[in-house]
């Protein structure tokens, strides 16, 4: 497993299960092997000819792992949406969400540490940060669409009034 694969898998795990207090790994040899491969790959990637080729290709598409990670983060956002009525009263209890059932009451969602700090120094932080910002931007776009389109459509559906004589 590469470092990037690990970070994306960790992000999917945290999106589904919430923040963990302790993380153990027995896969040290794989990470050391990945480090050597990444150092070699880093030398190739830093060559100016390759950089010029990559920058001329335009907007990047997500890899399968990146797409899977973004979709899992979207899943986490949707699972945070209240199922019950919410009020402005500070004394009210927290509204019920699907995350309450999935995380046994835990509903906070955040990354425990900065992902760029997890990457070996041979990878450029700028590249990783740019990819993470791209993924985060996709997540924000979904959240905006969720609030502006889906939630508003639910509100308008609940305001539909039935004629008094049609109720049984």
From TrEMBL:
GO terms for molecular function: nucleic acid binding; RNA-directed DNA polymerase activity. Gene3D superfamilies: Ribonuclease H-like superfamily/Ribonuclease H. PANTHER family: GAG-LIKE PROTEIN (PTHR47331:SF1), PHD-TYPE DOMAIN-CONTAINING PROTEIN (PTHR47331). Keywords: Nucleotidyltransferase, RNA-directed DNA polymerase, Transferase. InterPro entries: RNaseH_sf (IPR036397). The lineage of its organism: Eukaryota, Metazoa, Ecdysozoa, Arthropoda, Chelicerata. This is Reverse transcriptase. The gene is AVEN_255928_1. It comes from Caerostris extrusa.
């Amino acid at each position: 497993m590469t470092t990037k694969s690990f970070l994306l898998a960790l992000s999917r795990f945290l999106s589904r299960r919430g923040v963990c207090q302790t993380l153990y790994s027995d896969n040290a040899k794989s990470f050391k092997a990945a480090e050597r491969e990444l150092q070699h790959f880093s030398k190739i990637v830093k060559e100016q000819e390759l950089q010029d080729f990559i920058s001329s290709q335009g907007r990047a598409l997500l890899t399968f792992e990146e797409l899977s990670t973004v979709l899992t983060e979207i899943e986490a956002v949707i699972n945070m949406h209240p199922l019950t009525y919410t009020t402005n009263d500070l004394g009210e209890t927290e509204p019920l969400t699907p995350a309450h059932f999935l995380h046994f009451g835990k509903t906070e969602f955040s990354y425990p540490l900065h992902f760029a700090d997890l990457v070996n120094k041979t990878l450029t932080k700028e590249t990783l940060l740019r990819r993470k910002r791209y993924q985060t931007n996709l997540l924000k776009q979904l959240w905006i669409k969720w609030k502006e389109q889906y939630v508003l459509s639910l509100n308008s559906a609940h305001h539909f009034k039935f004629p008094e004589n049609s109720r049984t």
